[in-house]
Design goal:
Layout lengths: L3 H26 L15 H6 L2 H6 L14 H27 L8 H45 L2
Family: Belongs to the Mediator complex subunit 21 family.
Subunit structure: Component of the Mediator complex.
GO molecular function, one term: transcription coregulator activity
């Protein structure tokens, strides 16, 4: 399992991806707004209601070629609601991770003391590692000498 900071970075990457996808969805699939007293600039709404995308694709404005047709307003609202729930859920996961980070609720002096304790513990473990490394080297030399002796026996 990854440490908390890595999990937090992953959540941040995921929420950025969700935000981009949401903005892209809104940009490409939003229903056209109607301005009172102005002719409609959107595609014919009848094919959208029937689900016939082939006719609505022919009615796309020229500034958005190759984009999917706009969503029906109710479907668009439902999709926005679902996307917003996903963003809120991911944000809550991030808050849980942030609240579980060490150091929150501890004073600066407590954190410094803990860091000094951990540094001392690290030095002790490093000494043990150096002793084990020395023992390993001695064993390798002993094993090498034994292999040489075994090779000489006729």
């Amino acid at each position: 399992m990854a440490d908390r900071l890595t999990q937090l970075q992953d959540c941040l990457d995921e929420i950025n991806t969700l935000m981009y996808a949401t903005l892209n969805y809104i940009q490409t699939r939003h229903p056209y707004g109607e301005i009172p007293g102005q002719p409609s600039q959107g595609p014919d709404p009848a094919p959208l209601a029937n689900g016939d995308a082939s006719q609505s694709a022919a009615n796309q404005p020229e500034d958005r070629p190759g984009t999917p047709p706009p969503e029906h307003p109710e479907a668009f609202k439902a999709a926005l609601h679902e996307l917003a729930q996903g963003l809120v859920l991911k944000e809550q996961q991030m808050e849980i991770l942030i609240n579980s980070l060490p150091g929150l609720g501890a004073s600066e002096s407590d954190q410094e003391r803990r860091m000094q304790e951990l540094a001392a513990e690290l030095q002790e473990v490093e000494k043990e590692r150096a002793v084990a490394e020395e023992e390993k080297e001695q064993m390798v030399e002993t094993l090498g000498a034994l292999v040489v002796k075994v090779g000489r026996i006729p």
